[in-house]
Design a protein that fits this description.
heterodimer; A: 300 residues; alpha/beta; 4-stranded parallel β-sheet; 9 helices; B: 178 residues; 5-stranded mixed β-sheet; two-stranded antiparallel ribbon
Chain lengths: 300, 178
Amino acid sequence: MSRVVEIPAKFDDRSFEQFAHSFGAGALTDKMVFDARTAQWASPFGLVAMLTAGQAVQEAGGAMPAFTVPVAEDVRRYWTRTGFFRHAAELFELHGKVPKQKPDEQSDVLLDVTPVRASEDVHTVVGRIQEGAARIIHGELGLEAKATMGFAMALSEACQNIVEHAGTGGWVSVHAYKFRRQLGRRVVVIAVSDAGIGFRRSLEATQQRRFGDRWGDAAALEAAVIQHTSRFRDPGRGQGIAGIKRYLSRWDGKLTIRSGTARIAIVPSWDDDVPLTEHLSPFPGAQVQIVIPAQEAKRG
Amino acid sequence: MRQTIQIEQVLREAVRTPYRDLVTRATGRAVRSSIEQALEAAGATVTVLDFSDVGLVDLSCAEEIVAKLLLRQTAGTFVLLQGLREDQLEAIEHVLNHHAIVALIRDAVSGSVRMVGRVEPDMRDAFGALETGEELSTDRLAARIGWTLERARSALDVLIRLNVVRASDGAYTVPLAV
Protein backbone atom coordinates (compact mmCIF):
# COMPACT_ATOMS: atom_id res chain seq x y z
CA MET A 1 0.00 0.00 0.00
CA SER A 2 1.26 3.47 -0.86
CA ARG A 3 2.03 6.14 1.69
CA VAL A 4 0.24 9.41 0.97
CA VAL A 5 2.25 12.62 1.04
CA GLU A 6 -0.12 15.55 1.35
CA ILE A 7 0.59 18.63 -0.73
CA PRO A 8 -0.68 21.69 1.20
CA ALA A 9 -3.52 23.57 -0.45
CA LYS A 10 -1.44 26.74 -0.29
CA PHE A 11 2.11 25.59 -0.52
CA ASP A 12 4.76 28.10 0.55
CA ASP A 13 7.72 28.14 2.94
CA ARG A 14 5.44 28.07 5.99
CA SER A 15 3.17 25.23 4.92
CA PHE A 16 6.31 23.43 3.76
CA GLU A 17 6.65 22.05 7.32
CA GLN A 18 3.36 20.21 6.90
CA PHE A 19 4.71 18.73 3.65
CA ALA A 20 8.09 17.85 5.19
CA HIS A 21 6.33 16.11 8.07
CA SER A 22 4.17 14.09 5.71
CA PHE A 23 7.12 13.25 3.42
CA GLY A 24 9.40 12.33 6.32
CA ALA A 25 6.85 10.05 8.00
CA GLY A 26 8.48 6.96 6.46
CA ALA A 27 11.44 5.76 4.46
CA LEU A 28 12.45 7.28 1.12
CA THR A 29 12.07 3.85 -0.40
CA ASP A 30 8.41 3.61 0.62
CA LYS A 31 5.94 3.51 -2.21
CA MET A 32 4.43 7.01 -2.16
CA VAL A 33 1.59 9.03 -3.63
CA PHE A 34 2.00 12.80 -3.65
CA ASP A 35 -1.53 14.07 -3.42
CA ALA A 36 -1.89 17.54 -4.91
CA ARG A 37 -5.55 17.24 -5.86
CA THR A 38 -6.71 19.97 -3.50
CA ALA A 39 -3.82 22.31 -4.23
CA GLN A 40 -4.90 25.88 -4.88
CA TRP A 41 -1.54 27.62 -5.17
CA ALA A 42 2.17 27.00 -4.78
CA SER A 43 4.99 29.48 -4.37
CA PRO A 44 8.29 28.78 -6.16
CA PHE A 45 9.48 27.40 -2.82
CA GLY A 46 6.67 24.83 -2.85
CA LEU A 47 7.31 23.85 -6.45
CA VAL A 48 11.04 23.24 -6.05
CA ALA A 49 10.43 21.46 -2.73
CA MET A 50 8.15 18.91 -4.42
CA LEU A 51 10.79 18.24 -7.09
CA THR A 52 13.46 17.92 -4.41
CA ALA A 53 11.39 15.29 -2.64
CA GLY A 54 10.96 13.39 -5.92
CA GLN A 55 14.67 13.67 -6.60
CA ALA A 56 15.53 12.38 -3.11
CA VAL A 57 13.32 9.32 -3.66
CA GLN A 58 14.94 8.68 -7.04
CA GLU A 59 18.46 9.02 -5.64
CA ALA A 60 17.60 6.71 -2.74
CA GLY A 61 16.53 4.08 -5.25
CA GLY A 62 12.88 4.21 -4.25
CA ALA A 63 10.02 3.37 -6.57
CA MET A 64 8.86 6.28 -8.74
CA PRO A 65 6.17 8.00 -6.65
CA ALA A 66 2.72 8.70 -8.04
CA PHE A 67 1.63 12.33 -8.22
CA THR A 68 -2.01 13.26 -8.50
CA VAL A 69 -2.24 16.66 -10.18
CA PRO A 70 -4.44 19.50 -8.89
CA VAL A 71 -8.11 19.27 -9.73
CA ALA A 72 -8.40 23.02 -10.34
CA GLU A 73 -7.64 23.78 -13.96
CA ASP A 74 -6.18 27.24 -13.29
CA VAL A 75 -3.73 25.69 -10.81
CA ARG A 76 -2.71 23.05 -13.35
CA ARG A 77 -2.22 25.75 -15.95
CA TYR A 78 -0.13 27.88 -13.60
CA TRP A 79 2.05 24.95 -12.58
CA THR A 80 2.52 24.13 -16.24
CA ARG A 81 3.55 27.73 -16.97
CA THR A 82 6.14 27.48 -14.19
CA GLY A 83 7.72 24.48 -15.92
CA PHE A 84 6.94 22.29 -12.90
CA PHE A 85 5.25 19.41 -14.71
CA ARG A 86 7.99 19.19 -17.34
CA HIS A 87 10.49 18.20 -14.62
CA ALA A 88 7.98 16.41 -12.42
CA ALA A 89 7.30 13.97 -15.26
CA GLU A 90 10.86 12.68 -14.88
CA LEU A 91 10.51 12.09 -11.14
CA PHE A 92 6.87 11.16 -10.66
CA GLU A 93 4.24 9.07 -12.34
CA LEU A 94 1.75 11.84 -13.06
CA HIS A 95 -1.94 11.07 -12.66
CA GLY A 96 -4.43 13.55 -14.09
CA LYS A 97 -4.60 15.90 -17.01
CA VAL A 98 -1.60 18.16 -17.50
CA PRO A 99 -2.16 21.04 -19.92
CA LYS A 100 0.29 21.50 -22.75
CA GLN A 101 1.52 25.03 -22.53
CA LYS A 102 4.87 26.72 -22.94
CA PRO A 103 6.27 28.87 -20.14
CA ASP A 104 5.11 32.45 -20.61
CA GLU A 105 8.09 34.76 -20.56
CA GLN A 106 6.02 37.85 -19.86
CA SER A 107 4.21 36.41 -16.87
CA ASP A 108 5.05 36.73 -13.20
CA VAL A 109 7.21 33.66 -13.57
CA LEU A 110 10.60 35.31 -13.95
CA LEU A 111 12.39 32.03 -14.11
CA ASP A 112 10.55 28.80 -14.68
CA VAL A 113 11.65 25.80 -12.67
CA THR A 114 15.20 25.15 -13.82
CA PRO A 115 17.58 22.38 -12.86
CA VAL A 116 20.96 23.38 -11.42
CA ARG A 117 23.64 20.74 -11.60
CA ALA A 118 26.79 22.48 -12.81
CA SER A 119 28.45 25.83 -13.29
CA GLU A 120 27.00 26.15 -16.83
CA ASP A 121 23.48 25.96 -15.39
CA VAL A 122 24.23 29.00 -13.22
CA HIS A 123 25.34 30.88 -16.34
CA THR A 124 22.06 29.93 -18.01
CA VAL A 125 19.99 31.01 -15.00
CA VAL A 126 21.76 34.37 -14.66
CA GLY A 127 21.62 34.99 -18.41
CA ARG A 128 17.90 34.25 -18.56
CA ILE A 129 16.87 36.22 -15.50
CA GLN A 130 18.31 39.63 -16.28
CA GLU A 131 15.74 41.02 -18.71
CA GLY A 132 12.74 39.87 -16.70
CA ALA A 133 14.37 40.96 -13.45
CA ALA A 134 14.82 44.51 -14.70
CA ARG A 135 11.16 44.61 -15.75
CA ILE A 136 9.89 43.42 -12.38
CA ILE A 137 12.40 44.80 -9.90
CA HIS A 138 12.78 48.26 -11.33
CA GLY A 139 9.51 48.50 -13.24
CA GLU A 140 7.06 46.95 -10.81
CA LEU A 141 8.70 46.87 -7.39
CA GLY A 142 10.09 50.36 -7.74
CA LEU A 143 13.63 49.51 -6.69
CA GLU A 144 16.52 51.45 -8.20
CA ALA A 145 17.82 50.07 -11.51
CA LYS A 146 21.06 48.95 -9.86
CA ALA A 147 19.07 46.57 -7.66
CA THR A 148 18.61 44.33 -10.70
CA MET A 149 22.27 43.37 -10.95
CA GLY A 150 22.44 42.77 -7.21
CA PHE A 151 19.42 40.52 -7.59
CA ALA A 152 21.15 38.49 -10.31
CA MET A 153 24.22 38.29 -8.10
CA ALA A 154 22.16 36.97 -5.17
CA LEU A 155 20.54 34.42 -7.49
CA SER A 156 23.92 33.34 -8.80
CA GLU A 157 25.38 32.87 -5.32
CA ALA A 158 22.31 30.96 -4.11
CA CYS A 159 22.50 28.58 -7.09
CA GLN A 160 26.23 28.09 -6.63
CA ASN A 161 25.53 26.73 -3.18
CA ILE A 162 24.17 23.67 -4.96
CA VAL A 163 27.09 23.32 -7.35
CA GLU A 164 29.72 23.84 -4.66
CA HIS A 165 28.24 22.10 -1.64
CA ALA A 166 25.24 19.86 -2.28
CA GLY A 167 26.96 16.93 -3.94
CA THR A 168 23.97 16.53 -6.24
CA GLY A 169 21.70 18.66 -8.41
CA GLY A 170 18.87 20.94 -7.41
CA TRP A 171 16.26 23.35 -8.64
CA VAL A 172 15.66 27.08 -8.84
CA SER A 173 12.60 29.16 -9.66
CA VAL A 174 11.79 32.86 -9.42
CA HIS A 175 8.29 34.36 -9.28
CA ALA A 176 6.77 37.74 -8.55
CA TYR A 177 3.48 37.90 -6.69
CA LYS A 178 1.55 39.83 -4.08
CA PHE A 179 2.62 38.80 -0.60
CA ARG A 180 -0.59 39.28 1.36
CA ARG A 181 0.23 37.56 4.62
CA GLN A 182 2.60 40.07 6.20
CA LEU A 183 3.23 42.74 3.72
CA GLY A 184 0.37 43.49 1.37
CA ARG A 185 2.93 44.38 -1.29
CA ARG A 186 4.34 42.67 -4.35
CA VAL A 187 7.50 40.68 -3.89
CA VAL A 188 10.01 38.78 -5.98
CA VAL A 189 10.84 35.38 -4.56
CA ILE A 190 13.86 33.25 -5.40
CA ALA A 191 13.57 29.63 -4.31
CA VAL A 192 16.52 27.27 -4.55
CA SER A 193 16.38 23.69 -3.32
CA ASP A 194 18.56 20.60 -3.54
CA ALA A 195 18.43 17.04 -2.30
CA GLY A 196 22.09 16.97 -1.35
CA ILE A 197 24.10 16.53 1.82
CA GLY A 198 22.84 19.67 3.60
CA PHE A 199 24.76 22.25 5.62
CA ARG A 200 25.57 19.99 8.57
CA ARG A 201 27.35 17.32 6.56
CA SER A 202 28.98 19.91 4.33
CA LEU A 203 30.55 21.72 7.30
CA GLU A 204 31.07 18.77 9.65
CA ALA A 205 34.77 18.20 8.92
CA THR A 206 35.78 21.80 9.61
CA GLN A 207 33.21 23.03 12.15
CA GLN A 208 31.96 20.15 14.31
CA ARG A 209 34.88 20.30 16.74
CA ARG A 210 34.45 24.02 17.28
CA PHE A 211 30.78 23.63 18.24
CA GLY A 212 31.22 20.46 20.31
CA ASP A 213 27.95 19.15 21.78
CA ARG A 214 26.00 21.92 20.13
CA TRP A 215 26.84 20.58 16.67
CA GLY A 216 23.81 19.82 14.50
CA ASP A 217 21.73 21.29 11.69
CA ALA A 218 21.06 24.56 13.56
CA ALA A 219 24.72 25.08 14.50
CA ALA A 220 25.74 24.39 10.89
CA LEU A 221 23.27 27.01 9.63
CA GLU A 222 24.53 29.47 12.24
CA ALA A 223 28.14 28.82 11.15
CA ALA A 224 27.33 29.40 7.49
CA VAL A 225 24.77 32.19 7.66
CA ILE A 226 25.90 34.20 10.68
CA GLN A 227 29.62 33.46 10.78
CA HIS A 228 30.08 32.96 7.00
CA THR A 229 32.22 29.86 7.38
CA SER A 230 32.74 27.36 4.59
CA ARG A 231 33.91 23.77 4.33
CA PHE A 232 36.83 25.02 2.25
CA ARG A 233 39.90 26.29 4.05
CA ASP A 234 40.44 28.95 1.39
CA PRO A 235 40.02 32.30 3.25
CA GLY A 236 38.13 33.71 0.27
CA ARG A 237 35.23 31.30 0.80
CA GLY A 238 31.96 32.02 2.59
CA GLN A 239 31.35 35.37 0.94
CA GLY A 240 28.31 34.28 -1.09
CA ILE A 241 25.83 34.24 1.77
CA ALA A 242 27.43 37.41 3.20
CA GLY A 243 26.86 39.10 -0.17
CA ILE A 244 23.23 37.95 -0.31
CA LYS A 245 22.63 39.30 3.21
CA ARG A 246 24.20 42.63 2.34
CA TYR A 247 21.97 42.93 -0.74
CA LEU A 248 18.87 42.03 1.26
CA SER A 249 19.67 44.49 4.05
CA ARG A 250 19.82 47.26 1.46
CA TRP A 251 16.43 46.41 -0.04
CA ASP A 252 14.70 45.23 3.13
CA GLY A 253 14.57 41.65 1.92
CA LYS A 254 14.33 38.36 3.74
CA LEU A 255 16.49 35.25 3.63
CA THR A 256 15.53 31.83 4.98
CA ILE A 257 17.57 28.66 4.75
CA ARG A 258 16.27 25.31 5.86
CA SER A 259 18.54 22.31 6.05
CA GLY A 260 17.97 18.95 7.69
CA THR A 261 15.89 19.64 10.78
CA ALA A 262 16.59 23.36 11.24
CA ARG A 263 15.73 26.67 9.65
CA ILE A 264 17.40 30.04 9.95
CA ALA A 265 15.93 33.38 8.92
CA ILE A 266 17.33 36.85 8.44
CA VAL A 267 14.18 38.70 9.32
CA PRO A 268 13.37 42.19 7.98
CA SER A 269 11.26 44.71 9.91
CA TRP A 270 8.07 43.85 8.01
CA ASP A 271 8.12 40.18 9.04
CA ASP A 272 7.73 38.36 12.35
CA ASP A 273 9.45 35.10 11.48
CA VAL A 274 11.53 33.22 14.06
CA PRO A 275 15.32 33.66 13.55
CA LEU A 276 16.18 30.01 14.28
CA THR A 277 13.94 26.95 14.46
CA GLU A 278 15.16 23.50 15.46
CA HIS A 279 13.75 19.97 15.69
CA LEU A 280 11.75 20.19 12.47
CA SER A 281 10.89 17.15 10.38
CA PRO A 282 13.98 16.01 8.48
CA PHE A 283 14.09 16.95 4.81
CA PRO A 284 16.88 16.26 2.33
CA GLY A 285 19.45 18.85 1.30
CA ALA A 286 18.95 22.58 1.68
CA GLN A 287 16.15 25.00 0.77
CA VAL A 288 16.89 28.68 0.31
CA GLN A 289 14.32 31.42 -0.10
CA ILE A 290 15.06 35.06 -0.86
CA VAL A 291 12.21 37.60 -0.76
CA ILE A 292 12.57 41.13 -2.09
CA PRO A 293 9.60 43.42 -1.47
CA ALA A 294 8.32 46.36 -3.47
CA GLN A 295 9.43 49.72 -2.17
CA GLU A 296 6.88 51.18 0.21
CA ALA A 297 4.96 54.02 -1.35
CA LYS A 298 6.05 57.33 0.13
CA ARG A 299 3.33 59.03 2.11
CA GLY A 300 2.43 62.69 2.17
CA MET B 1 56.05 47.59 -20.39
CA ARG B 2 52.27 47.66 -20.27
CA GLN B 3 49.57 45.33 -21.58
CA THR B 4 45.77 45.52 -21.64
CA ILE B 5 43.65 42.38 -21.29
CA GLN B 6 40.03 42.48 -22.44
CA ILE B 7 38.22 40.36 -19.85
CA GLU B 8 35.13 39.81 -22.01
CA GLN B 9 37.33 38.24 -24.69
CA VAL B 10 39.12 36.07 -22.14
CA LEU B 11 35.71 34.97 -20.80
CA ARG B 12 34.51 33.98 -24.28
CA GLU B 13 37.65 31.97 -24.96
CA ALA B 14 37.87 30.37 -21.52
CA VAL B 15 34.28 29.33 -20.95
CA ARG B 16 32.53 29.23 -24.34
CA THR B 17 29.04 30.12 -23.20
CA PRO B 18 26.90 32.64 -25.06
CA TYR B 19 26.70 34.79 -21.91
CA ARG B 20 28.85 37.76 -20.94
CA ASP B 21 28.54 37.26 -17.20
CA LEU B 22 31.41 36.55 -14.87
CA VAL B 23 29.63 34.14 -12.55
CA THR B 24 30.66 31.00 -10.64
CA ARG B 25 33.94 29.89 -9.12
CA ALA B 26 34.69 27.60 -12.04
CA THR B 27 34.39 30.46 -14.52
CA GLY B 28 36.50 32.70 -12.30
CA ARG B 29 39.23 30.08 -12.06
CA ALA B 30 39.25 29.54 -15.83
CA VAL B 31 39.44 33.28 -16.54
CA ARG B 32 42.15 33.83 -13.92
CA SER B 33 44.18 30.98 -15.32
CA SER B 34 44.04 32.58 -18.80
CA ILE B 35 45.03 35.96 -17.36
CA GLU B 36 47.95 34.43 -15.46
CA GLN B 37 49.18 32.80 -18.66
CA ALA B 38 48.95 36.13 -20.46
CA LEU B 39 50.81 37.89 -17.65
CA GLU B 40 53.57 35.33 -17.71
CA ALA B 41 53.88 35.41 -21.49
CA ALA B 42 54.03 39.20 -21.75
CA GLY B 43 56.16 39.84 -18.68
CA ALA B 44 54.63 43.32 -18.43
CA THR B 45 55.13 45.37 -15.28
CA VAL B 46 51.77 47.13 -15.66
CA THR B 47 48.63 45.22 -16.71
CA VAL B 48 45.24 46.80 -17.30
CA LEU B 49 42.28 44.43 -16.93
CA ASP B 50 39.49 45.96 -19.00
CA PHE B 51 35.99 44.88 -17.93
CA SER B 52 34.15 46.74 -20.71
CA ASP B 53 31.31 44.65 -22.24
CA VAL B 54 31.27 42.24 -19.28
CA GLY B 55 27.79 41.66 -17.81
CA LEU B 56 27.31 40.63 -14.20
CA VAL B 57 30.31 40.10 -11.92
CA ASP B 58 29.32 37.97 -8.95
CA LEU B 59 31.27 37.64 -5.71
CA SER B 60 32.68 34.25 -6.60
CA CYS B 61 34.22 35.59 -9.80
CA ALA B 62 35.36 38.80 -8.12
CA GLU B 63 37.14 36.62 -5.57
CA GLU B 64 38.60 34.11 -8.02
CA ILE B 65 39.76 36.68 -10.55
CA VAL B 66 40.53 39.99 -8.86
CA ALA B 67 41.27 39.07 -5.24
CA LYS B 68 43.39 36.03 -6.07
CA LEU B 69 45.33 37.85 -8.79
CA LEU B 70 46.09 40.70 -6.43
CA LEU B 71 46.99 38.39 -3.54
CA ARG B 72 49.41 36.46 -5.76
CA GLN B 73 50.89 39.49 -7.46
CA THR B 74 54.67 39.66 -7.80
CA ALA B 75 56.30 42.65 -6.11
CA GLY B 76 56.99 45.44 -8.57
CA THR B 77 54.20 44.45 -10.98
CA PHE B 78 50.94 46.36 -11.08
CA VAL B 79 47.37 45.47 -12.02
CA LEU B 80 44.81 48.18 -12.81
CA LEU B 81 41.10 47.58 -13.37
CA GLN B 82 39.24 49.56 -16.01
CA GLY B 83 35.77 49.75 -17.58
CA LEU B 84 33.86 48.71 -14.45
CA ARG B 85 30.20 49.56 -13.85
CA GLU B 86 29.02 50.52 -10.38
CA ASP B 87 27.55 47.10 -9.60
CA GLN B 88 30.69 45.30 -10.78
CA LEU B 89 32.87 47.58 -8.70
CA GLU B 90 30.67 46.89 -5.69
CA ALA B 91 31.24 43.13 -5.96
CA ILE B 92 34.97 43.70 -6.31
CA GLU B 93 35.08 46.06 -3.35
CA HIS B 94 33.28 43.44 -1.25
CA VAL B 95 36.03 40.86 -1.81
CA LEU B 96 38.82 43.41 -1.43
CA ASN B 97 37.42 44.41 1.95
CA HIS B 98 37.13 40.77 2.93
CA HIS B 99 40.87 40.29 2.38
CA ALA B 100 41.83 43.78 3.62
CA ILE B 101 43.50 44.60 0.30
CA VAL B 102 43.12 47.34 -2.30
CA ALA B 103 43.00 47.62 -6.09
CA LEU B 104 43.76 50.38 -8.55
CA ILE B 105 40.88 51.56 -10.71
CA ARG B 106 41.68 53.43 -13.90
CA ASP B 107 39.23 55.70 -15.67
CA ALA B 108 39.55 54.76 -19.35
CA VAL B 109 38.66 58.28 -20.53
CA SER B 110 40.48 60.60 -18.14
CA GLY B 111 43.27 58.18 -17.27
CA SER B 112 42.95 59.04 -13.60
CA VAL B 113 43.78 56.26 -11.14
CA ARG B 114 42.15 55.73 -7.75
CA MET B 115 42.33 53.17 -5.03
CA VAL B 116 39.38 51.04 -3.80
CA GLY B 117 39.02 48.40 -1.12
CA ARG B 118 40.26 48.50 2.47
CA VAL B 119 41.78 51.98 2.31
CA GLU B 120 42.99 53.42 5.63
CA PRO B 121 43.10 57.23 6.02
CA ASP B 122 46.93 57.49 5.86
CA MET B 123 47.00 55.29 2.75
CA ARG B 124 44.39 57.53 1.14
CA ASP B 125 46.29 60.74 1.93
CA ALA B 126 49.65 59.42 0.74
CA PHE B 127 48.11 58.01 -2.42
CA GLY B 128 46.28 61.29 -2.99
CA ALA B 129 49.59 63.15 -3.03
CA LEU B 130 50.94 60.75 -5.67
CA GLU B 131 47.92 60.23 -7.90
CA THR B 132 48.71 63.18 -10.16
CA GLY B 133 51.60 61.13 -11.52
CA GLU B 134 54.29 63.25 -9.92
CA GLU B 135 57.23 61.33 -8.47
CA LEU B 136 57.87 62.19 -4.84
CA SER B 137 60.55 61.19 -2.35
CA THR B 138 59.56 60.30 1.20
CA ASP B 139 60.76 63.74 2.39
CA ARG B 140 58.74 65.63 -0.20
CA LEU B 141 55.66 63.51 0.43
CA ALA B 142 55.95 64.13 4.18
CA ALA B 143 56.43 67.87 3.61
CA ARG B 144 53.49 68.07 1.21
CA ILE B 145 51.05 66.42 3.59
CA GLY B 146 52.58 67.89 6.73
CA TRP B 147 53.52 64.53 8.22
CA THR B 148 56.61 63.28 10.05
CA LEU B 149 59.06 61.34 7.92
CA GLU B 150 58.25 58.20 9.86
CA ARG B 151 54.54 58.47 9.17
CA ALA B 152 55.13 59.04 5.46
CA ARG B 153 57.50 56.09 5.28
CA SER B 154 55.03 53.86 7.06
CA ALA B 155 52.18 54.79 4.67
CA LEU B 156 54.41 54.27 1.62
CA ASP B 157 55.51 50.86 2.92
CA VAL B 158 51.88 49.74 3.04
CA LEU B 159 51.16 51.08 -0.45
CA ILE B 160 54.22 49.32 -1.86
CA ARG B 161 53.33 46.07 -0.12
CA LEU B 162 49.88 46.26 -1.69
CA ASN B 163 51.42 46.90 -5.13
CA VAL B 164 49.65 50.19 -5.74
CA VAL B 165 52.69 52.48 -5.65
CA ARG B 166 55.90 52.07 -7.59
CA ALA B 167 59.25 52.73 -5.88
CA SER B 168 62.29 53.61 -7.95
CA ASP B 169 65.56 55.14 -6.70
CA GLY B 170 63.97 56.66 -3.62
CA ALA B 171 61.07 58.17 -5.56
CA TYR B 172 57.45 57.01 -5.46
CA THR B 173 54.71 57.20 -8.03
CA VAL B 174 51.34 55.70 -8.95
CA PRO B 175 51.54 53.49 -12.06
CA LEU B 176 49.82 54.98 -15.14
CA ALA B 177 48.67 58.04 -13.16
CA VAL B 178 48.26 61.16 -15.29
